[in-house]
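Hi C.,

You asked whether I'd gotten around to modeling the 201-residue construct. I have! Everything is below, sequence then structure, no commentary in between.
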Amino acid sequence: MVDIHDFEHGVQWRLDLNSLIHGQASRAPGTSLSDGDPTRLADVIEELMDNPFAFVPCPEAVTKIEAHGTSGSEGLTLFSEEVVSASPHVLVTEVAAQLRSMGFADLEFSSSDDSPFSSDGLHVAWWQRSKDLGTADIKQLYADAAVEGKRLVVLVNGRITRPATDFANKAEAFVFHLYPDSRRVRPANRLAQEAAFTTER
């Protein structure tokens, strides 16, 4: 994946290199390269350096950057600090849009009782229980995803234990903290950190 930051217009977006190299979008951030691909990758990077705006994706994949500075330094944040309560439908729709902008391309809103999200390649679990997400819990979610032949993505409203985080890293699952009041997601494990925009870290 490649993150492009347009500071002049205050926006950023992510490009799926798999789509640019192979002509097929990835279902989750990241792609493997075969022996012949590094040359094509170098060509794509050169094209991006020459004209990054030729590769702007659909509008929903563009994320606003809000700049703020103190003492001559400038920081970046991807969301407003204003807290506005949202309906469950609005929350799910906005979370899905954020994840799609990170590279989870086929994530959609779902009316299923099992999960408010649907995807052909991802099993998305939303952990809304009062107790912390523990190792046994993440193992069960991973097993559910494996039965479906899908990658695991977990959205956690509360906390996740360190052993559960370690297991998620080994299982190559994506775990994100979900903040319903601000309607934002933040990375909660290593793989989610890699998937997040560079200014989100």
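If it helps when you're writing up: The chain is about 30% helix and 25% strand.

Thanks,
B.
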